[in-house]
Amino acid sequence: MPAALTTKISTRDDPVTARPKVSDLYEVRQGDIDRDMDDVLRLWRYLPGDTPPQREKLDWFYRDNPAGRGLIFFLDYKPEGKPVGVVCLGPREFSIGGQLTTGTVFGDFAIEPEHRSLGPALMFQKAFLELATQQFSIVYGFPNALSGKVRSFGGHKLGYNLNIFVLPMDFRPYLKRRLSTWVANVLGLAANFATRIVYPVRALLKTRGHRVVEYSDEFMNRLWQRLSSSDQQLGTRDAEFVHWRFTRSPNFQFETLALVNRDGVPAAFAALRTSEDQVTVVEDAVATDALAYEALVAFLTKRFAGRTRALRFTISEQRGHAEQILAAYWFRKRGSFSAFATLGTNAPVDTDVDRVDLSFVDNDV
Fold first, then answer.
1. Which residues touch 360 (CB under 8 Å, ≥6 apart)?
2. Element at 167 (helix H, strand E)
3. Which residues contact 359 (CB under 8 A, 6 or more apart)?
4. Residue 234 and residue 97: Cα distance in Å, rounded?
5. How far is it, in rounded angstroms, from Cα 274 to Cα 282?
6. Angle at the Cα of 184 (from 183 to 185), degrees rounded to 5?
7. End-to-end CA distance of the chain
8. In this predicted model, which residue has the larger pLDDT, 124 or 152?
9. Which of 319, 307, 316, 224 is nearest to 269 (CA)?
10. Residue 120 and residue 75 in contact, taking contact as beta carbons nearer than 8 Å
11. Structure pTM?
12. No. of H helices and E strands in the chain?
């Protein structure tokens, strides 16, 4: 805690010294990605995790974002004349009932440890959120993805729940938690063998004429045209976004799955990656309707039976049909985290913040 914020204990002969207001010690200002790059990278060292984001993340997510150049805001500590906190805003294009509009996700929110008291942090949050709502139609974030103790941010309650669903594909590690090693190995191998038969047969029965095709920009643009013309409220998924978000990601390598319906019309898309613990993470999964979504799940369980430790989906509660489908395919809820969203001053009149379909692909990772 800076000396200026310490509370002085008074005595009879020593009158109480007034504690400085937070606004007297701190101020919030907008920075510039190029000019202030060194300060951004320095403050990113205080982000949670062992490996802070690097220059590649700054270039990819904030400078070269197809929805627009990112913004940065600093929390300056006046007595020392230096920034002690930073937040970065990454633009994200949304379709709201067929109308395109630009929102933003706040990410990489970091404050030096000695300045993390409630006053400066809350002042910083409220200030940059107010500035963001003046420039973007939707402002949202995933602070709870980093800390399960977070219940609000900048005065906004975290009203979104994103649930994590997992389907084991190799049963041995799970059985070893409850059984002896040799029993778990025997039963696990038997269960693994059964899934290699059951999942492909189920896929034949449940795909309802959908089939896998090679991904292409034309496919993705046609799929997005169908998605954006519906009454859904979700982030852009055109070919430019997919190329930027998945192909150019400096953090992970992705593979894609593209489905068309029996008429050859694009119906569903998924982007996947393999985590360090050999779990296949479905980073994004979108479909034109419930039948296409079920076909997508069926194809994924068929493809990865015996090839991965588990399949993991993270979906918002706004996708009620998706949760029902995953449960029917024996996925089980294994956790959740929260997010929040608020509307900006220029949001389309039809925007319902409670219906905006946020998913993990809308995050800044």
1. 142, 162, 283, 284, 314
2. strand 160-168
3. 162, 234, 235, 284, 314, 315, 316
4. 9
5. 9
6. 90
7. 30
8. 124
9. 224
10. yes
11. 0.85
12. 10, 15
> Which structure tokens are listed for 156?
């906004």
Structural contact between residues 266 and 257, judged by C-beta atoms closer than 8 angstroms? no
- The structure tokens listed for 265 are 């019309």
- CA–CA–CA angle 249, 269, 209 (5° rounding): 160
| Cβ-proximal residues to 328 (8 Å cutoff; 6+ apart), any chain | none
Tens of pLDDT, residue by residue over 32-55, are 999 999 999 999 998 877 676 788
Beta strand extents in 175-305 (DSSP E only): 211-213, 233-235, 255-260, 266-274, 279-287
Per-residue pLDDT of 75-106, as tens digits, reads 999 999 999 999 999 999 999 878 889 999 98
Structure tokens at 203: 């896929």
**E strand or H helix at 242, and its extent?**
helix 239-242
Give the whole-angstrom CA distance, residue 300 versus residue 280: 10
Residue 74 bridge partners (DSSP): 29, 86
Distance CA 358, CA 161 (A): 10
